Amino acid sequence: MTAPNSAGNLSRVPCTVVTGFLGAGKTTLVRHLLENAGGKRIAIIVNEFGDIGIDGEILKGCGIDTCPEENIVELANGCICCTVADDFVPALDQILSLTPKVDHILIETSGLALPKPLVQAFQWPTVKSRVTVDGVIAVVDGPALAEGRVANDMDALQAQRAGDDSLDHDDPVEEVFEDQIACADLIILSKSDLMDAAGSARANAIVNEHSARAVKIVPTSHGKVDPSVLLGLGLAVEDDIENRKSHHDGAFDHEHDDFDTFIVDIPSIANPDELAKRVTEAAEQENVLRVKGFVEVGGKPMRLLLQAVGPRVNHYYDRAWTAGDDRRSRLVVIGLKGLNRPAIERILAG
C-alpha cells in the first residue's frame, strides 16, 4: 500500500521547477527530459519574460506523444514569481483538468524569476492538496562561470563589482543568481563540453561559494541528463522552502524594475550570419543580455530560430512556416534597465 504524502493525499502530481539565468540552457534540458521521459505524460508551464513565446514554441515543435501541444501552457504576462495568483494557479488548473491525467509537471521559469515565491505558492491550501514540488533544479552557464560571470555578458558588471564590493548586493543579476542557487536541490552545470578541467573546477567553486547548503552539481552537455536524476526526487520542497534564505525574503512584491524587455520587428533577412553579427554588435555596444526570436529568411520555407546570450549567438531552422503562423521576424531583447532602444533597433534592423 502506498503511504500518504504530507498532505494526506495519495494523488498529488509532482512538479519540478527548472530555474536559471538567461540563456543557461533550461529549454534544452526540458526538451531532453521530454524526449526521454519513458512514457510518462508530462505537462509544461513555460514562463516567458516578454510578449512572444519563444521557448514554448521550441517545446511545442518536439512532436512528442506524451507531451502534446495542449500539455504546454505559456505564461507571457510577466515573471511567474510576480504573477503567481493571476497566472500560475489558472495554468495549474488547466493542466490538472487534462485527460488523460498528467504524471509530472515541469515549470520552466523565466531567466529573471526567483524560485522561492513560486514554491511558496504550493503551500496554499487549494494548491497543496493537488500538487507538490518534487524538486528545484537550477541550470547555470558553465563557461560563463568559468570566466567569473554569472551569465555570458557580464564584463562591464564584473568590472564594477571588482572596483566596489558594496555593489554585490545592489546588483540585480547577481542577486537573482544567488537566490536561484539558494533554492536549488540540484545544480545543472550546462555546456560542460565547452570547458576544460580547470574551467570546470572554477565554475564548481563559484556555485559552491554561493550555495548555503550541500547541493550536488551535475555537469551536462546539450541538456543530456538521465531523467531519473532529476525527476521523482519526492522532496516536497514547499515544506522546506522557509529554510532556504534569499536576498528577497519578505519582499517578493518586486516587479523586476532592474530590467528592460521589448520586442523588435525587423525585415525579412537574406543572410542569418549577418543578422548574428548584428546581434553580437548590439550585445557589445548596448549591453544587451539576451536576444531570442523567430526570423523569416527570404526564399526559405523554414523558420529561423535565433537565440543569443550576450555576444554568443546560435541560430538554426527549427521547422517550416505554416499557414497559421504570423510570418514576421520578431526578436525579444532583454537587458539591464536603461537600454538604448532606438540604438538597438537600428543595429538589429541593419
List the helices and strands and how they pair.
Elements: E1 13-20, H1 26-35, E2 42-47, H2 54-60, E3 72-75, H3 84-96, E4 104-108, H4 115-120, H5 125-128, E5 131-141, H6 142-146, H7 155-163, H8 172-183, E6 186-190, H9 197-210, E7 216-219, H10 227-230, E8 259-266, H11 272-286, E9 288-296, E10 302-309, E11 312-320, E12 329-336, H12 341-349
Parallel strand pairs: 1-4, 1-5, 2-3, 2-4, 5-6, 6-7
Antiparallel strand pairs: 8-12, 9-10, 9-12, 10-11
Helix pairs in contact: 11-12
Essential attributes:
350 residues; alpha/beta; Rossmann fold; Hypothetical Protein Yjia, Chain: A,domain 2; 2 domains; seven-stranded parallel beta sheet; five-stranded antiparallel beta sheet; 12 helices; 12 strands; 31% helix; globular; disordered N terminus
